[in-house]
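[Meeting: bench + compute handoff]

Bench side (C.D.) handed over the final construct sequence. Compute side (W.E.) agreed to return the predicted structure before the next meeting so the bench team could plan truncations. Sequence as handed over:
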Amino acid sequence: MRSGAFAMTKINEPCAFSPRPIVTADLLLRPIELADLDAYFDLYGDADVMRGWGTHPHTSKDETRKLIETLHGQIAAGELIRWAITEKQAPERLLGDVGFWRFVKVRHRGELGAKLSKACWKKGWMTQALSAVIHYGFSELGLHSAEGNIDPKNIGSIKLVEKIGFERIGVIKEHSYDPFENRYLDTILFSLTKSQWKGYPCEIASR
């Protein structure tokens, strides 16, 4: 997909994505494959990780397999784009995932989402992963802005996006359903435009 592809695509036409590998200081972001099933199940089966995502943890690898297959279909349809987060020195081991979803193509906007194994928290890796994907979104997908919706209690994620440069826009009332608490919760909306973005040193693989 060439740079600025969103701007070149009619709203109602499908636009397949191809998540090319991205290299940062410590990470390799690469496509998620069925070979990642065991590690992906470990990630999605962790209640602490999934609580921040707002969905129940997986209880079977069949559930995770179906998710991977669904992701491949959604990426091919241009509905979302997602990468496996891996350590550059061990790219075979999936540690998390990151990408854009909830695109509003007519506005050249995408919402960010990411998860990372607890063993990798507080290493600065999520900062690298999010920054690299934002760079990809602005430089390769033709996005004008990126958004994030975060639980007000998720202080770590709030500090993270603010560190990257996101601006706090306001609170969306009862925007997210929490299956753990069985109720709708408010979220804080954060936004980052291309003009606000300070850039990030990373290498995107050639096509």
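W.E. noted at the follow-up: The CA atoms of residues 27 and 88 lie 4 Å apart. C.D. will use this when planning the next construct.
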